[in-house]
Amino acid sequence: MSSLILRAATRALAPLLILLSLFLLWRGHNEPGGGFIGGLVAASAAALQGIAFGPAAARRMLWLPPAAVAGVGLAAALLSIVPSALFGLPPMAALWSKVDLGDGAYIPLGTPLLFDVGVFLVVVGSVVALIAALEHKPE
Amino acid sequence: MLSVVLAPFAASLLAPFLVARLGDRAALVLALVPAALFGWALANLGEAYPGRVEATPWVPGLSVPLSFNLDGLSSLFTLLITGIGTLVVLYAGGYLKGHARLGRFFVILFGFMGSMLGVVLSDNVITLFVFWELTSLTSYLLVGFEAQKPEARRSALQALLITGTGGLCLLAGLILLAEAGGSWELSDLALSRSWLQDSPLYVPALILILLGCFTKSAQWPFHSWLPGAMAAPTPVSAYLHSATMVKAGVYLLARLEPALAGSEIWLYSLLVIGAVTMLTGAVFALLETDLKLVLAWTTVSALGTLVFLLAPSDEPSVKAAMAFLLVHALYKGALFMTAGNIDHEAGTRDLTRLSGLARVMPLTFAAAAMASLSMAGLPIGLGWVAKELIGTAKLADDIGFTLTSATIANAMVFAVAGIAALSPYLGKRSEAAEHAHEAPWTMLAGPLVLGALGLVFGMLPQLAADALITPAAAAVLGQKPVLAIAIFKGVDWKFLLTLATFAAGAVIYLLWRRFGAAWRDASAPILARGPDRGYDRLLAGLASFATWLTRLMQPGVLHRYVGASFVVVALIVLASAFRGRFTLAMPSDGGLVVEWAVILLTGAAAIVTALATTRLLAVTALGVVGLGVTMIFMVFSAPDLAITQFMVETLVVVILALVLIRLPGFQLGTPQQRQGPAALLLAVAVGTGTALLLLGVLAEPFDTRLAEWFAAESVPGGQGRNVVNVILVDFRALDTLGEITVVAAAALGGLAAMMRVGRRRADAPPQSNLGEPR
Q1: Which tens digit of pLDDT belongs to each residue from B530-545?
Q2: How far is B729 from chain A (nearest CA, A)?
Q3: Smallest CA–CA separation between B717 and chain A, in Å?
Q4: Residues 722-741 (B) with a CB less than 8 A from some CB of A
Q5: Is residue B233 part of a domain?
Q6: ipTM of the complex
Q7: Which residue, B127, B343, B356, B709, has most beta carbons within 10 Å?
Q8: pTM over 0.80
Q9: d(CA B426, CA B593)
Q10: Cross-strand pairs, B122
């Protein structure tokens, strides 16, 4: 598919969608969003890229092969279980620490965030893997 | 006692390294393990009555402890398992000298030894079952040890299927037994006879347990796996398939005798099945020419005798059973090992080609002769048991049956003792005997020790009685019996009957020498229709049934799968709608304009989907339906759901379009096949059903406890205000972990499928472009 309008629009839209997906991932714990939704948005950015510029471009948006990204995501989700075990808590119990920014403002960081990042990566990796494989034209 | 059971497993893990380092001599080191356990069992003989229970927690959540009980019965079995085990390990070192898989052999053999010890020592029924199944599994691996031979694989599978099916019955039976008896510990169940036998669960439990025991102990009609198991190397036949594992069923019957025996169903099923097995085994033993098969059939016969003896559950017969159990293990282990020696040194086990071996293999002959004397009926041998048997036949109306079947079987077993011990060794030297020579000492120690022990116990019966038989019988009977054994009780009619049995046996032996070949020819067509044939038929039937079922359930056509799922959904919903109280909530407020607009849009898109003339239009219209659903979520303020639904719908349209484009021969304008009226009916049914279901759900009061709890705990417990996400990544993170695993696995599966398609296409010859429109 070689539509000039689509390609021009994709150049602008795809990075915006990626930004949006990260934003959704980050705020998901307090506002609508989260790893699953963010992952789907990022995957749709990759799908758009693939339709406009071909499957290779879609794969290039990720640093690793898409299936590997999904694997890294699973590993991250599993890794988030470990800290609670080290503290002798039940497996998967959430641990939080607050990073102080001064002025009473702080960023809470915790194992659920790592877990959510894992979810994000699994969704992105899996969907992009399928879409890129489907867009790939057999010779 | 836990360490006693675990010791062979530890040896099992060490065995390959020892074999790699020491070669065949590893057997000498490994034999120390069962020898030490034998010593432990001997040292604990004194305290074997009334028994000692030790428990280690294992699965506390299900209250299944690793509890073990050492009483007279388990002592007897432990001594047999470890004692014969020591000799068998030594023997295997010689028999399998230089075998490439000797290490693997010892891994499985010691695994079996530990499992068998577990069976006879377990007090908890679940623990017992676990070890029981482990013995079936290790037996499977040992029978199939020579896996390059098809008949070994077939026999192994047959043994596994028969004992495994029995094992499943046994599990069900044991669970029913524990429910009815009120305890999961065998030592408690032994005291529960009074209320257990009144329970309605008694009969089903008994039948299932009997099925488990009969399959394991090769009772008719489940016996066919045992002769087949002779495909195993001879040490295995001597150990598993004569001395120990096949006695597990007998062991369990004896163990459960205090709880289950006494009813008519127990008495008659054991009596009849035992007698039939006893006679079948004895007859078939006379019809074989393979020495190992002859011995295997006498083992079947002996197992039948044991079951038979356990039927009346009075003192003399239980004592007789325990005595016979000990004697049989000794002489049959020895005879199998001598058969192995002949096979190993003369190169054949065919009785028609073996004679005159006594000169070249004198020690093997000595061992075989001692074992045969015991088998044929020295005072503590079968003859003695026969006499005791008559004492058990105090059931006046059964005396004919009991006496006749026991006497006939004894006469035939007497003849077989001659066949196994005399015919290969005496007479003029056959061709096979010419280049035979005596076996190495490791292969002579076993049969000589076991044969000699049989003789010693025969001459000093009180020794065996005090140390082994009385405590074992005490455990079975639940009381301490006094056992007086006299070698010669004076001439009465029982003694005369024994003499008559010997005479009949001698006659049968002479007849066999003369007419054996004719008997075999005459019986061959009948034997071809036995239970073994039935097993083959059953297996073939199972395979074709599975094929039929798979074709029915997995037609490989997508719309049949979807159709089947929808039919089930529609039936369940409609059936529950017409069944009992089912009130519908009727929305009364009329709804907002925006709601109606969304519903109209979604409905219109659905109709377009159904009527679409091309597939691409259908997919796009389906996407619009999804967007309608998204808007419904928005209207009812569920933003997370709405965004997810929106993204999923978008990606689904993209993926479906990509799939459609890749379909062979797909064109943008390809018309869609119209579905028939059946599809319309199904769609209406599912739609109506779902609508009814939702209205019904709305009519029920909504339980808000869970929602309120999550809303209240979200910030303090989960550090987040978005309840949905807190549930996903914190409260129910395990669910999410499972889901993302599924997502990743599905992606990998899809990738693999597409790579195959791509490869197949690349391999296919190039197709002509002529037919394709521009």
Answers
A1: 777 788 888 899 999 9
A2: 6
A3: 9
A4: 722, 724-726, 728-730, 733-734, 736-737, 740-741
A5: no
A6: 0.89
A7: B127
A8: no
A9: 108
A10: B68
